[in-house]
Design a protein that fits this description.
This protein is an alpha/beta fold. It is 38% helix and 9% strand. Among the domains are: 45-178, Chitobiase, domain 2, CATH 3.30.379.10; 184-360 and 388-517, Glycosidases (TIM Barrel). The protein has helices at residues 4-19, 24-31, 53-62, 74-91, 120-127, 154-170, 219-230, 249-262, 277-280, 292-308, 334-345, 369-377, 438-445, 460-464, 498-509, 515-527, 531-552, 583-587, 611-618, 628-631, 646-669, 677-709, 724-728; strands at residues 65-68, 98-99, 106-110, 134-141, 144-151, 176-178, 184-188, 234-236, 268-272, 314-317, 351-355, 388-393, 417-422, 478-482. The strands form two sheets. An eight-stranded parallel barrel has the order 7-8-9-10-11-12-13-14. It has a six-stranded mixed sheet with strand order 2-1-3-5-4-6, with helices on both faces. Helix 11 (334-345) links the parallel strand 10 (314-317) and strand 11 (351-355).
Length: 739
């Protein structure tokens, strides 16, 4: 949706709700006589709750029956079942019958080859939509007025069915055509075989490896439904910090059982592979990727996996990072390692996703961790096999509340780069604080890499869509998201964290989509088409991430969280084994100022960006304020555009963050009685905790930075209520999600 929607949202929403008979007054009248039924969040955005009477009447007329004109498959069966479930719930009727006859008001699913009398214009449009696209139209077939869901394949029909249900639930006209801009749209589960989820905050892993393969939880099907509704078409079942056992026959059989459940929903299974697996299983005496024995082992292993999982997607690999084994252990390159695995998978059309998150100590000199991935991967541009994607985090450090985009985007034109976002909020308040990541994802994706000059692009979104490739061949494209899913009843711990899963899926389908428009979609499906709810919920979402940045890491500060668990502030930590594990490494606060100098006078990480961008960011006066201390070490007295000193500006952001958290709490409190009591109470509890978290961040950071700077607090600023030593003594030894 066009960015103009940002500005027009209130009147557009009002018009949509008015057309649907859902003005605030009408909604209030319809709910005044009875309380809103409680919900536990399990159904996510697929609630299919009754619409307002006028919308129900229209829906009944549009879906009197369901007609499938294509051969029955497991996927078309899932599509029909979802339509029946959705129509029954939203229209408040028995599920519409599936019939073989096209009649007035039928909901018809089919392809260009099977739809009788399809208009030639629609056939032409459909032909452009590929294997996964869909077309929704009000049309006439055999002289009958029908609602048409058309596609070229059964998975396209499933995506079209979900799109029609999404539009119906949101009160918008289901007239659309759409196809994904990225081929691979994957969740990465950082789930261990013992069901612990690394950086997970919604309970244990949903994959019950102990019970598999004989026992498959019904939750797996609901997981598949939710992902298919967003167009997510792959899932990596296990942690990137992988164990060799996952590639043994017993665990391959377990993965195959999951694959069988997910397959009808268009979702392929992938596995994280530990690079040294054959060595650790004592089946080779080395893991050198150039060893013929190692190459043969991986080829045989790939053959074994594909016998069990014919549509297996491939491997995700974390190598030579954070202690993980890799090809550099044998003086080989990342390309050598990735290409060896790619050769094993190529006969089966499998792919390798090779993570670019690498950092290792360099003896004898202080390093800038932000430089290391670029330094290792840029020289390998064009040297990876055609079925390899290099999976790059959105920023060069590590999923911080705010980072400039990774300099590799745009810098490797001959290598497919796959975006890696983190949906679980490892550094943004876990499942306690509201932080809508749609705005963060959008900020990165719309960033101009300036590879062709300032304002000339390509954007990061265009890079991952493959627009920059120079060899003329269609490249592999993809986006991965580190999942925030667990066994908590509402799947994500915090009801609002469902919006981050949702936003990832929608942006993986279209990286140039609007975060606000996506928030509107999610709110309408998750809380119902009531203007009293949608407007405030969308406002909360759109404010939330900036609020968290303000009270955690304003003005480009980064990685000042507690160590190991990343919970709470710890800017004072300076005694860890590696320099770049210590928060003091990143903020560099001292009497002379604060911030990390990445200009030519410092580590010169700026040189890794396109020249136009490097010139812009080399000067603090032309560096966006949000990245100021990421790229510059500045005096505490540096004059900010606001007229305040840098010291006063930092404090103002911390105060603004606390005020923002309290504002979120007030906005949610105002929805009591309009949102069901259970979900309202559960979110309200977390918002109270979020205010406490914001206050802790504000007070601890101000106390510490004042101790370092030696400066008095500006006039009118409330001092931290406790001395610095009090905040230093706070520990979280059993915080969930520890690495």
């Amino acid at each position: 949706m066009h960015k103009l929607f940002h500005k027009l949202f209130p009147p557009v929403l009002a018009a949509l709700l008015l057309a649907a008979g859902l003005t605030s007054a009408n909604a209030a009248t319809s709910t005044a006589s009875k309380p809103v039924p409680d919900e536990d969040g399990y159904n996510l955005w697929l609630r299919y709750q009754p619409l307002a009477p006028a919308a129900q009447a229209r829906l009944k007329a549009q879906a009197r029956s369901i007609v499938l004109t294509t051969p029955i498959t497991a996927t078309t069966t899932a599509a029909v079942a979802e339509l029946q479930r959705g129509v029954a719930g939203m229209a408040g009727i028995d599920a519409p019958a599936q019939t073989a006859t096209i009649a007035d008001g039928a909901l018809v699913l089919g392809t260009a080859a099977t739809l009788p009398g399809l208009d030639s214009t629609l056939k032409t449009e459909l032909a452009k939509l590929g294997n996964e696209g869909y077309l929704l139209r009000a049309a006439r077939l055999q002289g009958r007025p029908v609602t048409l869901i058309a596609a070229n394949t059964d998975i396209g029909l499933l995506y079209g069915a979900f799109a029609w249900l999404r539009a119906t639930a949101g009160g918008t006209a289901p007239e659309a055509s759409s196809a994904p801009k990225l081929q691979l749209r994957l969740l990465n589960h950082w789930d261990n075989l013992d069901r612990h989820v690394e950086r997970g905050y919604a309970g244990a892993s949903i994959w019950d490896w102990w019970a598999l393969p004989e026992i498959t939880d019904s939750r797996y099907t609901d997981y598949a439904r939710a992902n298919a509704s967003l167009g997510i078409n792959g899932t990596v079942l296990n942690n990137v910090n992988s164990k060799p056992e996952v590639l043994t026959p017993a665990y391959i059989a377990k993965a195959a059982a999951v694959a069988d459940v997910l397959r009808p929903y268009g979702i392929k299974v992938f596995l994280s592979a530990r690079f040294s697996t054959p060595l650790e299983l004592k089946q080779t005496d080395t893991a050198d990727p150039l060893s013929p024995a190692v190459q043969t082992w991986w080829k045989n292993k790939a053959d074994e996996i594909y016998r069990a999982i014919p549509d297996f997607g491939g491997f995700l690999v974390k190598a030579n990072s954070e202690g993980q084994p890799g090809p550099q252990d044998y003086h080989r390159s990342h390309a050598d390692g990735a290409n060896m695995l790619a050769a094993a998978l190529a006969p089966h059309h499998g792919i390798v996703m090779w993570r670019a998150f690498v950092y290792a100590p360099q003896a004898g000199k202080e390093t800038d961790r932000a430089r290391q991935a670029f330094e290792e991967f840029k020289p390998l541009d064009g040297k990876f096999a055609s079925n390899v994607l290099v999976q790059v985090k959105n920023g060069a450090i590590d999923f911080q509340p705010r980072e400039p985009f990774h300099p590799l985007f745009g810098a490797m034109p001959n290598t497919p780069l796959m975006m890696e976002f983190q949906i679980t909020k490892e550094y943004l308040g876990f499942s306690t604080d509201i932080a809508y990541l749609g705005t963060m994802f959008e900020e990165v994706l719309e960033s101009d890499t300036m590879q062709q000059g300032q304002g000339k692009g390509p954007t990061v979104a265009q890079v991952i869509e493959g627009s920059h490739t120079l060899d003329g061949k269609p490249p592999l494209t993809g986006m991965a998201g580190v999942a925030n899913i667990g066994v908590d009843r509402n799947w994500t711990g915090h009801h609002f964290d469902q919006a981050n899963w949702y936003a990832f899926g929608r942006l993986a389908w279209n990286p140039q989509a609007s975060a606000r428009a996506i928030a509107v979609e999610w709110a309408a499906q998750s809380f119902g088409n009531d203007a009293r709810v949608i407007g405030p919920v969308v406002d909360m979402l759109m404010r939330s991430r900036e609020t968290v940045v303000d009270y955690m890491s304003p003005l480009g500060l980064h990685h000042i969280m507690g160590t190991a668990h990343h919970h709470g502030p710890a800017p004072w930590v300076n005694d860890l084994e590696r320099p770049d594990w210590n928060p003091v490494y990143y903020h560099r606060a001292a009497r002379d100022g604060i911030g990390f100098d990445r200009t030519a006078s410092g580590t010169n990480a700026l040189e890794q960006y396109a020249p136009a961008l490097a010139r812009l960011y080399a000067d603090p006066r032309t560096t966006p304020e949000k990245y100021l201390l990421w790229f510059h070490h500045l005096p505490w007295t540096y004059a900010m555009p606001s007229g305040r000193t840098l010291w006063a500006e930092i404090i103002d952001h911390y105060d603004r963050g606390v005020a923002g958290a309290r504002d979120l709490q007030s906005r949610w409190d105002a929805l009591r009685g309009v949102v069901d009591a259970r979900r309202h109470a559960e979110v309200a509890q977390r918002l109270r905790r979020q205010v406490q978290n914001a206050e802790l961040w504000r007070n601890a950071c101000i106390a510490y930075f004042q101790s370092v700077s030696g400066l008095p607090l500006p006039n009118g600023v409330t001092p931290p209520p406790q001395p610095l030593e009090y905040y230093k003594a706070i520990h979280f030894p059993y915080a969930p999600g520890r690495g």
